[in-house]
């Protein structure tokens, strides 16, 4: 009995993510496979689309353009902030990711420039603007439970926790 990936299935998979320069960004190989509810848009669109119709044991590689991954980098997301909003502005390093308190809650930003009075931060997702390649191995496919469908995410190891 082979179950194929379609909406309302819970899918567990291992992945290795590399960027357009062939550098490895992330892998699940050293931990539990990731589990998601197919059709719930919890993973990037390009990857979710590539999963449809696959089944347990399938291995494949997919390359995804920014528009179907984390989007294009937006210039408007790069902002200049007064140094006084940072506790230790002199210790900031280029490329460092820090959490800023905003009216909408904490925001992860990357430090792109440290000036005397101001700091430029980039609030784009760190993978925005990048073409990404995923090497995927499907570990398991099963029917999602009623509860998972109601919640809009998968439960259990590698899935969403509350
Ligand atoms: Zn839940």
What is the strand and helix layout of this fold?
Layout: E1 9-18, E2 24-27, E3 34-37, H1 45-51, E4 59-64, E5 78-82, E6 97-102, E7 105-114, E8 118-122, E9 132-143, H2 146-151
Antiparallel strand pairs: 1-2, 1-3, 1-9, 4-9, 5-8, 6-7, 7-8
Bound molecules: zinc ion.
Report on the biggest sheet.
5 strands, antiparallel
Oligomer state of the chains in this structure: single chain
Distance between the termini: 32 Å
Rounded mean pLDDT is 94
Ligands bound to this protein structure? zinc ion
Shape: elongated
Helix/strand/pairing class, anyone?
A: mainly beta
List unreliable stretches of 5+ residues. Answer: none
Radius of gyration: 19 Å
Instruction: Give the % helix.
Output: under 10%
Highest CATH level, the class of the largest domain? Alpha Beta
By DSSP (H or I, 4+ residues per run), the number of helices equals 2
């Amino acid at each position: 009995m082979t179950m194929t990936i379609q909406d309302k299935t819970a899918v567990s998979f291992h992945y290795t993510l590399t960027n357009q320069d062939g550098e490895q960004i992330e892998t699940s190989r050293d931990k539990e496979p990731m589990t998601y509810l197919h059709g719930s848009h919890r993973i990037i669109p390009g990857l979710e689309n590539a999963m449809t119709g696959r089944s347990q044991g399938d291995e494949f590689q997919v390359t995804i353009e920014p528009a179907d991954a984390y989007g294009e980098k937006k210039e408007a997301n790069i902002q200049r902030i007064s140094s006084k909003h940072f506790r230790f502005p002199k210790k900031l390093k280029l490329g460092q990711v820090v959490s800023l308190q905003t009216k909408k809650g904490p925001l992860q930003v990357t430090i792109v420039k440290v000036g005397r009075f101001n700091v430029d931060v980039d609030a784009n997702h760190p993978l925005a603007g990048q073409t990404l390649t995923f090497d995927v191995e499907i570990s398991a496919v099963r029917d999602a439970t009623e509860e998972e469908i109601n919640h809009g995410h998968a439960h259990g190891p590698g899935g969403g926790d509350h």
